[in-house]
Structure formats: C-alpha cells, structure tokens
C-alpha cells in the first residue's frame, strides 16, 4: 500500500542482483531454473520477509495447534491440457500432494483455484475436474475448498489450476534440503525424463509418436514405505520443472555439499534418450511428475532402496550418486567415458536445440 | 547446426507432391521430408536434420567402421594395458 | 537408437583412446569446426581423456554464434512488428542483439515461435494468411537444403505471406580464412560430417593441398570424434596432410546431389560477415534473384539498425582458436550464459558457453571468491 | 485420466441443470453469482466428490493432528492492479485471511502462487510483493510457501495471484452458514460498496473522481473481539464478489431461512450511493473487501454489536436485518417507502446500466 | 446527491400517496412508457403502495428490449468479425439474438467492450486506427443526442474506422400505436421525463387530443413517479385529458433546441420494427444520407442472418400492456433472466425481468415446486 | 434508457473544439460533454446522460415542486391519518 515505507525501491532500483538484467518478466522466470530462483531470492523473500530458506523446500513446515504440518502450493499452466497418460488435473493433485510428501507428511486436504478463460468449453473443465477428483481419490486426499475466476478471452489460456494443500508430519521426521550431508547416497525412484517427453510429444509443432506416457502419480505411499524403514531420511525431492539436474543443484546449494552423479547409472528409458537426441535436449533437465530423489545416510541406503524396490512406485529405484566433500554447492557428473562435466542449473526452460 | 540422427523409414507417402515418411528413432516417430533422398525405401535408415532426410545411411559402411574399432582393440591388446600407458602419456590420472 | 548407441560404446572408446595415446608424441592443435562436435567433446569429457599433448580448438562451427550482429538486430526489428509471426529454431532465442534478444521481443508482445523444422514455419504461414510469417534461416550447409526446400515450396505453393531471413554460412571459406591468418595455430581439422553429407568432400582437397593441413571428416558420436582424432594424430605424427573420411556411413564423397542441385537453384554465394571475425569472401549464401520475393531482407526494409557490439568480447579470437574462452577477462564474470556478451556464450555449442557449462569447475572463479578445483578426471 | 470410469459424461451431456445453457465459460461464471454457484454445484462437487456443503462456506474446516483448522483459497485477477487505497497484493493477503477468519479461525500461514505474463515489469511484481508482505505483517500472517509460473504474452494479464491459507479454530467455535437460524440478528460491520466503487473509479473507460478508497483489511481482529463476547456466533461472511446481496442469499439458501433486510438501515456512504446512481448499479451487489456480515442470536446481538463498535474495524457496525420464518431461502428487503422487493442472486457480474 | 435525495424523501412520499389514495375511486390503468420508470416503481415497491385500483402497465420503454431481433443478429455478426471492436452499453450484452448474445460472442474471442458513453467508443476508434470500431447506437430520444454528437464528431474529426449500428426508437409513435390497438386498456400515460428533456412536449398535445388520454410528463425518482401518478389519477377521476408536466425542472416545453437541431442533421425518421410488436411507422431514426459513411449497416453488409424468435414468448403483448409478465406461461419456468426467451426478460428494465426480480415472491413458482408467498407489503 | 442524473458543474474547458466539464454528482466527479447546453456555467446543475449534459436543471422549478409537496402534506393533514385510509382503500396492510 502507498502508505507503508517500502523495503525495496523498485522504481529507482539499482541493487546489483542479477535480476536487473531483465526489467521485465521473461519465460525463464517460470522455468524453475536460475531466473526462477533469483526471483524468489531477490524479490519475494525480501518483500515477504521470509527466512532465507524460503523457496528451497518443496513445502513449508510449521506447527499449528500442536500438529506439525507441511503446507505447499503449485500453479499448473501446462499445455496441452491433456497428454499421454494424464492431464493438468492429475498434475494439479499429484504435484501438490508430492510437494507435501517430500517433507515426509501425509497429504490430506487440498484447495483448488481455477482461472478460466471465457470461451473455454465446459466439457474441458469437466474432464479436468473429473481427473482431479479421480487423482484425489487415488491419492487419498480431499479437495475441500476452492475458488473460480474467469478472465477475458485473450487474458488466459483455457484453464489454469492452482492447488495448495496440507499434510501431517509424523513425529521424528525431519526431511529438508539442508540436511543433505557428505556421504549421503542419492537414490532416484525410477526412470527419468518421462513426463517431459510425454508432454513434448503432443506439443504443437513438435509432435512425435511415442509410447511414452506421463509418470504422474502421488508419491506419498512410496514415502511411507521408505519412512517405515527409517525416519532418518535426509532429503526428498520430486524433480519436476528443471528435472533432476535442477533439483540436485538446489539441494547441493541449500546444504552446501558436492553432488557427484554417475551418468551411466541414470535410468533413462531408451525412448526418452532418443527423443532427447532428436530434439537436442539433456534428460537430466527434463521434467518428472512421479519420481523422487532421496538423500539417505549411507548406512540406511541399502534397506531404503530395498523398500523402494518392493513398492510399485519404486520398482526401478536405483542409486545415481552421492554427496561428496568436493566442489560444494555443485553437481558434477562422471560421464560414461570416464570424463566429468558440471551439471549446471539451467537459466530458463530448455529449448530444443537443432545444432 | 548439425544435430542429425539416423532413423528407420517406416512408411512413405505423398503430401502436396512431396515425398514424406514416418521415421522411427528408436521408439520415437517423426514425420520427415524425403525429397533429398529420392531412392530411399521403407526399412532403410535416413540421417534426419530439422525434419529432412539428408542422406541414406550406408549400413554396410557403419558396420565396417564398427568392425574396424573391434579389430583395433584386438590389435592393441597385444601391446599391454593401454590405460596405464595413457595415464603415463597424458600426465593425468585417467580412470576407466 | 540403432547406429547411435553403437557409436557410444565405452569399451570401444577405450580402444580408440589407447591408439591415440599410443600414437601421440608431440603437442598438436586440432580444430573441430562444428559446434555439434564441440558439444559432444565437452558433454562426454573427451578432451579430458585424450593426451594432454592434443589441444582441441573449438572452431566457428555454431551458426548461431557467427550470425552477424547486424542480421540479428534486423531479425529483432522484424520480429517486433505487429503483423509478423517470427519463427526460429530454439537456439536463436537467447542470442543477444545490440540491445535485446528474441525472448525479450516475445515478452514485449512480439509473436515469436520456436519451430522444429522450417516446414513448420511454412505451415504457420498457410494457417495465418493475414499475417507475415518470417523464418530465420540460419545454418551451415547441413541446414541449407531444408531451408532451400522450404523457400522452394513457398514458391511452388504460392504462399505470399512467407519469407525467410537468410544468414547461411559455408564451412570451406571459413577454414581458408582461419588458415590464412598469420597467427593461426591450427594444425589439422575435424570436418563436420553432416556438412559433408550434403556437400560431399570435393571442396577439401584444395585446402589440404594449399595449407598442407590434414582434414578428417567425422561424425558426432563419441566414437566418431575419437576416430577422427585418431586418424588426425596418425597423419600429424606421420607428417602427412590428406583428406580422410571417417564418416563414410553418412557422408559419401559426392554428398547429396539432389540437395546440391536445389541449393544451386535457391541460393547464390555471397560475402558474409561472421560475428566476431569479420567478412569472409564467398562464405555465405543468400536467396538467388529468382527467389527474392521470399527474402525478408527485401520485404522488410528495416532501417534504423543501430548495431553495437560489446567492446570486451573476444569471441572472434575464441572462434578462430587464438584464445581459449577462459582467457577472455569477461569470461564467467561479466559474461555468463545468463548475460552473454558475445554469441559464443549463448548457444550450448558456443565455445564460451560450452566451457562455462562443463569446465566451470576448473576455470571459473566461484561466486563467493573461492576457487574450488576438484581432483577429477 | 482416461482409464477411470467417468462419473459425468461431459461430451454427451444431457443433464438438465442450468449449466447446459452455455457450452462455454462466460464471464459470469466468475462473477460470484448464480453461474458461479452452479459451476460449483453441478460440476466441481460431483467431480471432486465433495459433500453437499462445498462452496457454501468461506473456508473448509477439518481436524488434523488434533488441531481444528480452517483452510481456504482465493485467486485474485482484479484489474487494475493498483487502485485507490490498495492493490491486488493487499487483497490477496486479506481476502484469504478473511475467508479463514469467517470460520472464527486465526489466519496464520499463507501460500501464494503467481501466474505472470511475460513482459510484465518486474517493478510491478515488486510493488505487489511489497504490498503482500506489508499486508501479511499487518494481519499477523506469514507467507511461507509459494510458486511462480510464467505464461506467454497474450495468455495472461500481467499478474494473477492465488493465495491459500490455514488458521486454527478456537475450541467451542462453530461458525458456518448452515447455522443461521430464525431470529438471528444480521449485523454488517460498516459501510458497504466501498471497495467495488473504488475499483470502478479507476477502471478503464469508467474513470470517475472520488475520495473513495478500498476498505481492504484483515478482519480477524474484529472477529476475535466478537468471539470474546460469545463463542456462539452463528455465521460470519465477508461479502466480497457479488456484495451483501449475494452473501445473504447464499446463507439464506444454506440454512433455509428467510432473510429480511431493512433497506434504510443499510450503511451506504453517499459517494457509493451516488456512483451507483450514475452507473445504474445497486450497492447491495457491489463488492466489499474489509467488511463482514454476522448472524448473531438475538440475545447476544446487543453485546456483539457493542464489541464491534468498540473496535476500529467495526466502528460503524449496524443491524441491517434478521432471519425470519418466511420466504425461506430468499432475501427480501423492505424498501425505504415501505414496499418490498426480492433481493435476488445476480446472474453474473453487475453491468453498468444506462437505461 | 442534490436534487435526487430530496425526491427520495419517504415523508413527502406519504403525503403524495395520501393524496392518491384520497383521490382514487375507480380502477384505472396507467402505462409508464419508460423502462427507467418501471425500474424505479418496482425497485421501491411503489406499485404496492398505490391503491389496488390503480394498475401500472409497464410499457415498451426499454430500448434494449425493443431492439429488433434482426438488428441484434446483425450486431452479433459484426461483433464476431476479427477486425471489429464492438462497443456497447452494458445492457445490451445479455440480450439474446436468435442463437447467441454479445457475451457469448466475446467469450468466443470477439472484441466486445462495454462503454459508458458513445464518446468512449470514438476514443477507442482513435486509439485503434487499424481496427474497425462499431458502436451499437440504441435508445430513445434521450440517448439519441449523445449518439448523434458522436457520429457528428467522427465526421468532423475524420475518424474513418468508426461506425454506428443505429437502432433508435421514438416514443410518440409508440404511444400512438398502443392507443390505436383495438384491445388497448391504457387510460393514461406517464411520459418519460428525459425524453422530454430533449424533445420537449410538443409531440404530445396531438396524442392527448386524438385519443382523449391524459399524459403526464414525469421524472424517475420515487416522488416524481408518485407525483406523476397523482396528477394522472386527478385527471382520470375528473374525466379530463390534458398534457401535464410534472418534471418542469428538467423537461422544459421546448426540450433542448441544440440537441434537436443536431438530431435533425444526423438522423432521419424511418419505420422501425419493435421487438415483439412489429413495425411502427415513423417510429425510428437512422443516420441521414449525409452520414451514411458512418452507418455500420452499410459498412458491413452482413448477410446470412437467420433470425428466429421464440414461439413461446409473449413479450409483444407484455410490452403493449395486454398481459402481465407472469401471465406468460414461460415466465419463471423456461424463461428466466438467466435464460431469457424474450428481451423483456433480459434488461433490468424489461417488464418480465423486473417482475421476476422484484415480484418473484408473489408470482414465481419456487424451483422446488413449493410456492411461497410471504405476507408482505 | 433514461438513466440521467443531475450534477453540479465544477469546471469548464475546451477539448478539440468541444465544450467539456467536470461535473460533481455528490462527491463523484465525471467528465461531461456540454455541447447541448451552451449557456450552462460553473455552479449550475446539469442533467447528465451517458456523458452528455442534456439539460440545465431549473433549480427554481425543482424547489417549487418540493414546496408543493410540502404544502400538499399540510393540506392532507387536515383530513386525518392517510395510512389508515390507504390500507382501507387498497385492501392490503400497508406498513410505513
Ligand atoms: S567469454 Fe563472453 S565476452 Fe569473452 S569471448 Fe566469450 S562470449 Fe565474448
Ligand atoms: S416471460 Fe419471457 S417468454 Fe414470457 S413474455 Fe416475458 S420475455 Fe417473453
Ligand atoms: Mg509447491
Ligand atoms: Mg511441485
Ligand atoms: Mg473465493
Ligand atoms: Mg487465449
Ligand atoms: Mg517439488
Ligand atoms: Mg468470502
Ligand atoms: Mg476462499
Ligand atoms: Mg474470499
Ligand atoms: Mg512450485
Ligand atoms: Mg495481456
């Protein structure tokens, strides 16, 4: 409000943060890469007065009335709305449920907020709502409150969905990126890059034929199975936007550990690898919607891995790397040929390369 | 500017007088223009760049090259552990 | 993928590396001309595996990088016009013009679309008869036939609202220019296999002879690169300078005659400026007079272009192999992929970006001032 | 997802609900009126499998880990982004905080989700974030988690904000629309129509000069003051979109009581009345952002009213009507001249009338 | 607001009501011509306060309601065109054409904008020189001068991309048509004060004389309406038929000469169809030949209009006072403001909507089948 | 179509040769075109419809009308309670 003393002066802005590169929002600010992170760090955190950790965890954790809660939100703007194996509705439920589960909480209650563009067919909205209902039932969460806004044609794109949700964290569980520690074993719960390639296969102008379907799923049952082995899981993360590379970088930065990846251990399905080859993409940066990364103390790693493999959502779980005392805050991959390369945070979204 | 990959021609047809095909890149199928490879047939491999087949892949030559690599290994074997020598030569520690 | 996976086999790579290590006895400087090869080398850490005596110099092989600034500024001006749908390969979107890039133009309301193929742009033109659809036709000889075919089809199908902004470049004149430089350090070339898939190898014997420089045509997979290096060092050590083709499976000596015929029809050779290097005679293609109606430069007489290159950027020297990216003072400090001063920092194939991305560990000062060097490799 | 058996068949839809009138989304579906209500009742509730009450309360109430929580979400698409006395940022915080407070809960934690249109000036986003931070500090809530998406130019409108939030409900408090009972006294906490007129005064093409500023405020402190008098408040509601008329209709429907309004008791400031006269609007349908309606048992009404008037947010609180055993589920106003009129739910948004 | 609040004084209203009650001895049927007056009567419950012997008949006084279906269909067709920005008063947006309404057109991508004043549409035209801006010029004599001035200014300022779709109607020919109907029940008229603000009262003496019907010019505030009714019943009870003016403060006998001069310049009288009623000779205005260039009907030669009125709707009879809205079988069942069959259910001034909105209590079956009638009034 | 309200002229100016004014409607100020009321001055009241002043309000006449209403009440008073009579006449219960 006009009256309040501004903490930041945005008009005569001269602070030397990278944000000033661009005086306007570009697509990359929503890509989950560097630009997104800088927006959180340099704009939202100072404005909201949040703690330094804001933006690094999948969900916020706090106590209310004696209960320890995880609370998270995501907005879904994926195009097309329907794609092989799922829809924006599935993502909207599973995405927020997963962010809650990544704190070790059981997601239980969701809200949803729709921004509808006038002219959108009601049947489209109906199918999305159906998918949300079905996904919620599968995930065991209830959509308990909502809101709908309509915007003028040309000021939206059919349907955008926001969900927020809460879940209860069991006693003794403390899962957050800052807990990654040297020696931790890094596990991925299954094949990577699947969701992103499924989406691209139906994106206008890029269409290609493939059997790949989104991996969208609620990961809480898998988390529960892992927590049954040990409460001492250090970090969980669903590598969505920006893929495995971005999630690992965020964790490496938050905990200031080095992350060492073994490239040949990465479970990249052949179709994902081939689609990436065709488009000039790197599977490490392609989005997942039903996979998690776990940072587990070395002593527990084998048991946790076994529990994951015993669960349908983790059948193909595998160790892909470890936390090291070198190159802190960086992710480095050992290539198949024995070389190394830095796996950096992307700037914005990955663009199909042709050269 | 040279991101081109080999794929197998699945099906050929005509579109506005242009020879087109579905090409399979290991489970990923894209529509490709065949105008530059007039003699290519179904089951042949095409090297595809930005939606165009630029060459027919010479499978015989590909297999020959691979065979050469194989043979070279066998010749090398006779001269002792190559990795040790590599490390020595380059002055750095090379891990396999 | 068949014929890809086989050329990614680490076991076979070992054998090729062994041979290279066994062969090299003196320092050699080899330039890979093509950005795709640069990408592959750094992506797989090949430069760390070959003998230290062999230095790979990353050449001007990324057409995104060498597209002249003035043309990018023209592209930006055209893309900003309300009647225009500007189609481009994704690589070009982040390339900085003098003041903006295509992302910024898009964010300010310009209708900028990424396409996978130039034919997609033609489809956009047919779907939007009320708009002007402009395709940014950049690339080496590899991309020239698809772009030529697209213009040819636009003419055949009579699609008047389509045009192409052409900035095609040709590899052999660039090799000639590099070799003619008095400070040139390059002793051999890996020639880009897919360029030869189109053009064949007939342009190279003259260069081999004129400069006594070995040229080996290679592919892009790790084994292809290694085999190219292997054959090159054999020649260098033996003191020979020949044209060799290690990519016969996709690059026959004659190239692709159908494609070359179309190129002759649609394009004509022209002098072309290379960003950071300067004008290289006969190194470009432009639309031939017959297709001038589809030339966006003619259709949109963009004036008021105020082209302004960074004074810090040494990308010309990088592109010609005179310096390594990290020898530029701006590298990793004022110049990053996030805020590139030169085009070589923009594209993943750009030598500076490739260095930044995969070699940062060794050569970049950490943001916090510490310089962490891991004992890797 | 394609596999699940659809509960509704949207393609061959033949159910005789009013929704089928329009096969597409029109602006009215977001207006908070009949069309909005029908979308919730006939589309979201069946799809999500929520209880019949869904959509009638400002927030969902449930127990988690022994704590009774109120949970709510709203999306903010108000244009212009900045208006006399506030901005979309203030609304985004106060709006959700108020929906939580309308269950008697103390709002404590908020999430926020942004949909940014590429090309939006960062300084605009900065000002909004500042306003959100300042409003959160005033309201005593923390913005603890968030998400940012960027959409293509022409597929958004600068900035849309979703907030969701939770709050703890004190023991013994049970506030919900269904509890409205015949005999309840209806109190409004102050002047009505203020926010809507403030917005219209700066809306493109409608601009007029006025001193009116939005009333946006977090109402929880007022609610706390009221609860200090009695825990037995039946209903609270912030009459936002659709105004007092819409809120009263929703409550009358939910509780199946008749609502009788006394028109001359309505606190309509002269500028609001005059702007409405000029534009052909009815103040009863104009939005508020810092006012509440309370349904209070007759015996408690006087004490509650006194407590409200003693609070800065309720200085002008006044009784505007009562619940009656007639015309159940309807709102009827006694006009200044002694006539009556039905105060109906609007269909969509009110349009300025010229005739 | 000064000169509004005073005419809303409940104390004074009582005095006027007293006089009316004291005066009326027999049943009378009075038509208020203007929709604004209908709105005021029902909004304030005036019809419940006057003697039951006095029946208020709601006349065809809402231009939104009487705009011919064919013209609405034309408006919809024009508004759907991609090059058009279609500007309208808010009231028109929900009026159903044969198959759609402006809201639907907008939701399907049509650029439909609500304006407060026709001058706003002219501003839109100046701001968007590349687009065609069309204003839907509807209304009675009150709105005609603003619309005329806007066309006049468009001509003066030479704004070629502006045009107006004109559907102006005139009150006196409608009164004549109603009185000429053999089934007419109307015994007196309240004439719309703001129509007379423009036109003066010179058109009414002839009607008074021809049909021996009292006509009282009245304003729109509750006291104005009551005073109008009071003067009317005095005449009716006394058996006189005169023209009386109860709105002298804003409707002088001469009207507004400047406005009338402009109307004569910009418009010409034409026959006009009234929705639900039919063509009334000389009851409309269209742009005069001099301004034809700004006539949207000429500029956009819309054909293919397939006009199709509901067969159930009896709005014509409602508009002419032959039946009350709730006497229509569709009222409140298949016809609601939400899904109106006729235009009288759309606008708040439409007799059917006004009845639905404010009188639902008495006359509408409840959705659950119960019919709740409260003891009110 | 007759939603017109009286407002007080605050300020008059010329825009593109058109006489314009700010008119105050009890704290709500709008820009209004005065072309149809060439003689109106600041402090006068104008009856405004869709942004145009259609008439100058005759304040004298307005006050006279109100005075008439006042007087009528006084006359009526002599004839007893009007509400009782109203109820009787209309057959319905009328509450004030
Ligand atoms: S690091 Fe940047 S400034 Fe230096 S040469 Fe490379 S692109 Fe130019
Ligand atoms: S109720 Fe509907 S159908 Fe009947 S006359 Fe009125 S508008 Fe026509
Ligand atoms: Mg989240
Ligand atoms: Mg998420
Ligand atoms: Mg809401
Ligand atoms: Mg859209
Ligand atoms: Mg996540
Ligand atoms: Mg609310
Ligand atoms: Mg809410
Ligand atoms: Mg709310
Ligand atoms: Mg998120
Ligand atoms: Mg926009």
Overview of this structure, please?
The complex is a heterohexamer, with two copies of chain A (355 residues), two copies of chain B (96 residues) and two copies of chain C (377 residues). Chain A has 355 residues and is an alpha+beta fold. Chain A contains eight helices and 14 strands. The radius of gyration of chain A is 20 Å and the shape is globular. Mean pLDDT of chain A is 89; it is low at 1-20. Chain B has a single domain (5-89), classed as Roll (SH3 type barrels), CATH 2.30.30. Chain B contains two helices and five strands. Chain B has helices spanning 59-77, 82-90, and strands spanning 5-15, 18-24, 29-33, 45-49, 52-56. Chain C contains 16 helices and eleven strands. Classes of the chains: A alpha+beta (355), B alpha+beta (96), C alpha/beta (377). The structure holds iron/sulfur cluster (SF4) (2 copies) and magnesium ion (10 copies). One magnesium ion (MG) is lined by residues 117, 154, 157 of chain A. One magnesium ion is lined by residues 58, 99, 102, 238, 240 of chain A.
CATH topology of the largest domain in chain A: Phosphoribosyl-aminoimidazole Synthetase, Chain A, domain 2
Order of helices and strands of chain A: HEEEEHEHEEEHHEHEHEHEEE
Chain pair sharing the greatest interface:
A-D, 99 and 99 residues
Overall mean pLDDT of chain A:
89
Task: Quote the beta fraction of chain C.
Answer: 15-25%
Q: Largest sheet of chain A, if any?
A: 7 strands, mixed
Computed CA radius of gyration of chain A, to the nearest angstrom: 20 Å
Distance between the termini of chain A: 49 Å
Largest sheet data of chain C: 6 strands, mixed
Q: What would you give as the CATH superfamily of the largest domain in chain A? A: PurM-like C-terminal domain
**Count of structural domains of chain C:** 3
Contiguous helical run count of chain C = 16
- Please give the order of strands in the largest beta sheet of chain A: 9-11-8-12-10-13-14
Mean pLDDT of chain C: 89
Helix content of chain C: 25-40%
């Amino acid at each position: 409000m006009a009256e309040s003393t501004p903490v930041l002066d945005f008009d005569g802005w001269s602070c030397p943060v990278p944000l000033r590169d661009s005086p306007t929002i570009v697509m990359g600010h929503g890509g989950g890469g560097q630009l997104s992170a800088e927006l959180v760090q340099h704009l939202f955190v100072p404005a909201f007065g949040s703690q330094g950790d804001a933006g690094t965890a999948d969900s916020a954790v706090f106590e209310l009335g004696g209960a320890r809660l995880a609370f998270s939100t995501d907005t879904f703007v994926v195009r097309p709305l329907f794609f092989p194996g799922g829809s924006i509705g599935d993502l909207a439920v599973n995405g927020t449920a997963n962010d809650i589960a990544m704190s070790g909480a059981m997601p239980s209650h969701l809200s949803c907020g729709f921004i509808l563009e006038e002219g959108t067919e009601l049947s489209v909205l109906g199918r999305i709502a159906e998918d949300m209902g079905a996904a919620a039932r599968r995930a065991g969460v209830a959509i308990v409150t909502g809101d709908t806004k309509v915007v003028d044609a040309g000021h939206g794109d059919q349907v955008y969905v926001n969900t927020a949700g809460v879940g209860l964290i069991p006693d003794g569980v403390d899962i957050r990126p800052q807990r990654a520690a040297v020696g931790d074993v890094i596990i991925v719960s299954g094949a990577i890059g699947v969701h992103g390639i499924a989406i691209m296969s139906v994106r206008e102008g890029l269409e290609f034929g493939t059997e790949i379907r989104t991996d969208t799923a609620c990961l809480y049952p898998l988390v529960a199975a892992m927590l049954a082995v040990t409460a001492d899981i250090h970090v969980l993360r669903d590598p969505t936007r920006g893929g495995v590379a971005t999630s690992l970088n965020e964790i490496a930065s938050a905990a200031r550990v080095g992350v060492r990846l073994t490239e040949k251990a990465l479970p990249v399905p052949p179709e994902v690898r081939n689609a990436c080859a065709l488009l000039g993409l790197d599977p490490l940066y392609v989005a997942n919607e039903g996979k998690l990364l776990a940072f587990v103390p070395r002593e527990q790693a084998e048991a946790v891995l076994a529990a994951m493999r015993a669960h349908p959502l983790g059948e193909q779980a595998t160790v892909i790397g470890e936390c090291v005392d070198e190159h802190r805050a960086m992710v480095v991959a050992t290539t198949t040929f024995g070389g190394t390369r830095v796996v950096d945070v992307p700037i914005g979204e990955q663009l199909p390369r042709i050269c | 500017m040279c991101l081109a990959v080999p794929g197998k021609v699945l099906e050929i047809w005509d579109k506005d007088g242009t020879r087109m095909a579905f090409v399979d890149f290991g489970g990923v199928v894209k529509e490709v223009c065949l105008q530059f490879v007039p003699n290519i047939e179904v089951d042949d491999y095409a090297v595809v760049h930005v939606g165009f087949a630029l060459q027919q892949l010479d499978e015989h030559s590909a297999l020959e090259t691979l065979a050469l690599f194989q043979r070279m290994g066998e010749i090398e074997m006779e001269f002792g552990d190559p990795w040790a020598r590599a490390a020595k030569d380059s002055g750095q520690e090379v891990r396999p | 993928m068949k014929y890809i996976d086989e050329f990614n086999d680490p076991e076979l790579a070992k054998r090729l590396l062994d041979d290279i290590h066994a062969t090299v006895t003196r320092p050699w400087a080899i330039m890979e001309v093509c950005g795709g090869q640069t990408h592959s080398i750094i992506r797989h850490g090949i430069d760390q595996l070959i003998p230290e005596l062999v230095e790979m110099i990353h050449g001007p092989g990324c057409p995104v990088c060498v597209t002249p600034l003035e043309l990018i500024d023209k592209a930006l001006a055209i893309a900003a016009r309300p009647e225009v749908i500007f189609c481009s390969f994704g690589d070009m979107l982040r390339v900085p013009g003098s003041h903006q890039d295509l992302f910024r133009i898009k964010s300010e309301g310009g209708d900028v679309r990424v396409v996978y193929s130039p034919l997609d742009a033609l489809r956009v033109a047919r779907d939007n008869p009320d708009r002007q659809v402009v395709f940014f036709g950049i690339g080496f000889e590899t991309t020239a036939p698809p772009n030529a075919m697209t213009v040819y089809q636009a003419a055949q199908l009579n699609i008047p609202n389509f045009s192409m902004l052409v900035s095609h470049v040709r590899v052999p004149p660039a090799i000639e220019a590099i070799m003619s430089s008095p400070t040139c350090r390059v002793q051999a070339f890996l020639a880009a296999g897919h360029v030869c898939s189109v053009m064949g190898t007939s342009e190279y014997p003259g260069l081999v002879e004129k400069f006594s420089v070995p040229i080996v045509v290679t592919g892009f997979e790790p084994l292809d690169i290694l085999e190219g290096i292997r054959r090159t060092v054999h020649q260098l050590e033996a003191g020979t300078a020949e044209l060799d083709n290690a990519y016969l499976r996709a690059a026959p000596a004659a190239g692709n005659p159908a494609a070359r015929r179309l190129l002759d029809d649609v394009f004509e050779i022209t002098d072309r400026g290379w960003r950071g290097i300067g004008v290289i005679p006969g190194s470009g293609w432009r639309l031939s007079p017959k297709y001038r109606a589809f030339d966006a430069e003619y259709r949109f007489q963009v004036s008021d272009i105020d082209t302004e290159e960074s004074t810090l950027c040494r990308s010309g020297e990088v592109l010609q192999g005179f310096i390594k990216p990290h020898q530029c003072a701006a590298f990793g400090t004022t110049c990053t992929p996030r805020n590139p001063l030169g085009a070589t920092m923009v594209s993943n194939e750009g030598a500076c970006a490739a260095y930044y991305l995969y070699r940062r560990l060794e050569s970049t000062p950490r943001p916090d001032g510490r310089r962490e060097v891991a004992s890797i490799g």
